[in-house]
Each structure stands twice: as structure tokens, then as C-alpha cells.
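ok, trying the design again with the full structure, not the truncated one.
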């Protein structure tokens, strides 16, 4: 049992550590912005590696279907316009847009805000990993690149952002490592404070896009942790069984 767990972990770790090149397998979508007013249109763009028709499903904050659409991808690229009108768009808050190509792909979800929302800071859309309300000052938009462990910050002036460690962190072993904050080709001076949950960063935002570079982002080693947990349970069960067999005068097999 232990041997098979070790083989499985060795097989998974290299694959999890690699960054895929080119277009990701499956489907991915994005929109023309997070906040939208009613009586306007949301443009959803995407790409897919599958030939099946793409289905777009929108759920309102109450969990009801606000819109459904279907389109075909050309050379893997597609777009859909969704119009924010009708009774199922009457709720204020966060709407979830999910895309799927056929029945064999994992659905890909993003989020948009319509009307009034409950976030006092700035929303960070992490796709299938959820939507997060990040406490910020003078920040208009946030984007995270999980593969490269970076976060893009759109804003201006004296910016403050409180980044939960579960979303983006910077470590050297068990020790905190300073984030790298850069604008275009140069690094920006910044100040950091932290506790066990939050990394707070402050700097003067020159306008445009400022990027924060960490060492890991969500989801970090999720597959490995699941396999390790399963292996731990299996190993404990094996040892309990072995001990019980020995006490009864039998071998472990």
C-alpha cells in the first residue's frame, strides 16, 4: 500500500509543478469587465480545445437561471453577448457565468457584479476557485494569474491591498519572503505588514497596471494534498490492520 502511494505521488508532483504551454485543455472564458449596469450587454469571450457547441449558463444571486445561450467556436474562439434585462436580472449582487463545451469538459466559471454589491473593497474573480472580496484602497480592478503566481492591480494614488495568504503568498521555505511589486520594466518601492492570515501591501500606484509577484497562488498543490490525505488514511488503516493481525498471531497478509 505504501509503495503504491509513493508511486502515485511521484507521478503527480512533476505534472502539478509544470506550467502548460499554449492553450489550456478544456475551456476558458472572460468578460469586458466586472461591474455592469442593467439594460446593457455583457460580452463573454472564450476559447476551447473541443469541437462541441459551447453552452453559456448564467445564475443570479438567488441561484436561479438568468440566461442560457449556445454558440459555436471557430478555430477554438467564441463570443456571446448577454443582455441584462428581464425579471431574472432584477437581483442586485454577483452573477455566475459558466461555460461548457459538450459534456466532456469541466465547466469554467467567472463572476460579474450587477447593481449594488456587498463588497466594501474590490472583487477578485478566481474563476472556478470562487469570487473574493479583497479589502483595498484606491483599487479599481484585480486580476490573478494562478499559473505565474502574480496579481494585477488597477488603480491610482496611494494604494493599499490586503491579500489573504490562501490567494497569493510569498515564501522562502517557512519564512515570509517580500513580494516583488513592479510597473512596466521597473520595481516599485512598497511597504508590507503581515500576520498569519493577511499580507498587506502599500505603495504609490502610477496608474495603469501594477503587478505583484509571489511564490504560489490558489490552488496550491491541491491534487497532491488530496492524494497525500488519501494515502495517509490508507497507511493508517494498513498499520491498524497489521497490528491487529499480529496480536491475533497472524501475519499482515
Amino acid at each position: 500500500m505504501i509503495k503504491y502511494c509513493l508511486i502515485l505521488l511521484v507521478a503527480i508532483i512533476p505534472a502539478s509543478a509544470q506550467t502548460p504551454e499554449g492553450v489550456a485543455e478544456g475551456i476558458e472564458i472572460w468578460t469586458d469587465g466586472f461591474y455592469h449596469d442593467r439594460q446593457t450587454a455583457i460580452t463573454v469571450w472564450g476559447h476551447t480545445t473541443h469541437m462541441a457547441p459551447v453552452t453559456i449558463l448564467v445564475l443570479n444571486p438567488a441561484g436561479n437561471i438568468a440566461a442560457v445561450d449556445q454558440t459555436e467556436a471557430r478555430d477554438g474562439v467564441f463570443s456571446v453577448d448577454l443582455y441584462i434585462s428581464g425579471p431574472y436580472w432584477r437581483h442586485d449582487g454577483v452573477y455566475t457565468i459558466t461555460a461548457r463545451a459538450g459534456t466532456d469538459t469541466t465547466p469554467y466559471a467567472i463572476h460579474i457584479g450587477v447593481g449594488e454589491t456587498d463588497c466594501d473593497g474590490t472583487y477578485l474573480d478566481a474563476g472556478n476557485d470562487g469570487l473574493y472580496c479583497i479589502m483595498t484602497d484606491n483599487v479599481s480592478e484585480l486580476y490573478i494569474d494562478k499559473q505565474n503566481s502574480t496579481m494585477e492591480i488597477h488603480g491610482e494614488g496611494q494604494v493599499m491591498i490586503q491579500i489573504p495568504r490562501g490567494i497569493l503568498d510569498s515564501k522562502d521555505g517557512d519564512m515570509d519572503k517580500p513580494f516583488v511589486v513592479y510597473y512596466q520594466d521597473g520595481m516599485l518601492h512598497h511597504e508590507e505588514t503581515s500576520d498569519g492570515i493577511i499580507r498587506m501591501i502599500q505603495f504609490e500606484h502610477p496608474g495603469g497596471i501594477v503587478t505583484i509577484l509571489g511564490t504560489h497562488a490558489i490552488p496550491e498543490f491541491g491534487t497532491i494534498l488530496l492524494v497525500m490525505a488519501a494515502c495517509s488514511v490508507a497507511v493508517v488503516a494498513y498499520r491498524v490492520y497489521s497490528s491487529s493481525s499480529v496480536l491475533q498471531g497472524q501475519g499482515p497478509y
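Keeping the full-length input from now on. The first strand starts at residue 27 and ends at 31.
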